[in-house]
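Lecture notes, continued. The same structure-token format from the folding unit now serves as the input rather than the output. Read the line below as a description of shape only.
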């Protein structure tokens, strides 16, 4: 297996039933002579939970930032729920929850203060605001730390605060960059269960370095290497291409000489 020969899984992904909620159409990002990603195309349909994999520096975070509108593509188009992120970003953002890796939080604020701030910024009416804040605090298990400064929280709790903020406005689409980073095994299990619940009604694209979590949280894998898509298909098919998921990942992301 090499990065020059993607599997036929790409057609598997694009043939899913349902509405395409996340669309990458020939996305590329160039920084001078450096290529962060090139001609990346895939769709994620309503109700899918898709793992986005690749080695460090493969272009995962860049692609996610292009999809969420945090970066403008050099070429290509990103759409969320049918909205072009280049010219209809506000409408797209209303349907999108984004958790970046090591997402910025205001350290002097408390989780409940931060959530109230973001709810007000999104224009939520006070009654609905209180209801949603309570719901995401419960969903992300933050009740014991809601009044503590974020600067005093562990990395795991800060990650949960970021997740709560991403879920606050009840988005249809979630894009999560390393949502289990810094979590202990018990917290990872909680995130896994949360993903399974959310996946029943939302569209989720998540990146992770923990391959053992892929089979637990996703039914499809999109894999990129050196900025290019090299696999798009079922988790079971990828894990069968060698001695398990780790072996398949290694084969697809090791440059041939």
């Amino acid at each position: 297996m090499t990065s020059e020969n993607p599997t036929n899984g790409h057609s598997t992904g694009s043939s899913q039933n349902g509405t395409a909620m996340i669309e990458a159409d020939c996305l590329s990002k160039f920084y001078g002579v450096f290529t962060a990603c090139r001609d990346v195309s895939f769709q994620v349909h309503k109700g899918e939970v898709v793992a986005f994999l690749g080695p460090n520096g493969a272009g995962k975070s860049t692609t996610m930032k292009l999809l969420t509108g945090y970066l403008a593509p050099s070429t290509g188009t990103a759409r969320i729920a049918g909205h072009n992120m280049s010219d209809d970003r506000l409408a797209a953002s209303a349907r999108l929850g984004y958790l970046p890796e090591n997402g910025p939080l205001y350290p002097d604020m408390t989780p409940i203060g931060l959530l109230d701030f973001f709810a007000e910024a999104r224009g939520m009416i006070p009654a609905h605001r209180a209801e949603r804040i309570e719901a995401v605090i419960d969903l992300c298990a933050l009740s014991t730390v809601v009044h503590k400064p974020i600067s005093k929280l562990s990395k795991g709790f800060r990650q949960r605060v970021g997740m709560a903020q991403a879920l606050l406005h009840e988005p249809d689409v979630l894009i999560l960059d390393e949502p289990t980073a810094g979590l202990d095994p018990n917290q990872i299990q909680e995130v896994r269960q949360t993903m399974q619940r959310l996946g029943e009604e939302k569209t989720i694209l998540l990146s992770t370095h923990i391959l053992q979590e892929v089979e637990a949280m996703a039914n499809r894998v999109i894999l990129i290497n050196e900025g290019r898509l090299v696999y798009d298909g079922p988790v079971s098919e990828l894990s069968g291409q060698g001695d398990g998921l780790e072996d398949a990942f290694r084969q697809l992301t090791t440059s041939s000489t």
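Point for the exam: The two ends are 12 Å apart (CA to CA).
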